[in-house]
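Input record (one chain):
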Amino acid sequence: METIIKRIDLEREKPEDAEIFCEASRILKKGGLVAFPTETVYGLGGDALMPCAAQNIYAAKGRPSDNPLIVHIGDFDAVDKLAKNVSEDAHKLMKAFWPGPMTLIFEKQEMVPKETTGGLDTVAVRFPSHPVALRLIRESGVYVAAPSANLSGRPSPTRAEHVIEDLDGRIDMILDGGPVAIGLESTIIDVSGKTPVILRPGYITKEQIAGILGRIEVDPAILEEHVQEHLVAKAPGMKYKHYAPKGQLILVEGGSMEQVSTRINQLVEEAMGQNKKVAVIATKESRDCYKAPLVVTIGSRQDEESVAHNLFAILREMDTRGIEMIYCESFEREQLGQAIMNRLLKAAGYHVLHLN
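The corresponding structure, as predicted from the sequence alone:
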């Protein structure tokens, strides 16, 4: 398959953009796949109401078919068509955070095929804010099922180049809208029961959600340090190893910055003694503490949004450089740090070295 790649300039609309979106719409309507940018990461889109499109998504990604897909919509009215028993809490969250990086899980309507929901009676729905995503959804007239546009298990794509690296020749079309703004997937909240529960942390934090609802539960699996192999996953990313670079990532946590950097430097020296290609992922505050051949700055601890934005791109950079052993500091598990640590734990395959 030859993948069509088209650049969309967000600064100014070009006459040829209309034909690009027409072509993308035609692909979606016939069950094909179009990768496109959202404000979080790039998504791999197919018609959410077409079982064969969901099957095509799973095949292109090499994704387990029990891992639910998120249905992307372009207006609030779509919720009642896809979901039933929409609670008052759900309405409050939609009013506060949509369009934006939040996914809600509802009981599904019959029209939503179980191929899209991973066999479940619930459906995950998101109303993105990115102009390319919204135009694609609205002009195609399709509810777009879209997991991240990468091979299953790989770091999520934050630029079109990442999508091309993983899926060129495997999907019909890629819409290149440049780098995404956030860099972490949406926060997922289950609103299908009596009490809302965060199933995946993201850019919208537990504290922000509690500010709207007054209460919120967090699924304990979010920061557990082992793979949830036997879990029935109601949301993407709960069950399987995700976001992983090809090299081994090890997180080091506990103690002072000096203790962490000292231990990482010891690990670097040991790995280099075994002729391994080694790198350290550091923060702006600690980067000068390391003696590795490659030290990459992920962002500042005073600006967790910078860490979130750079995370997946840096993990992919490790692959480009052929790094075999990667050592990384841990982060606080509150606010946005909870989402960052959730991704790092999965990327490391839960390899964490605790200093105390």
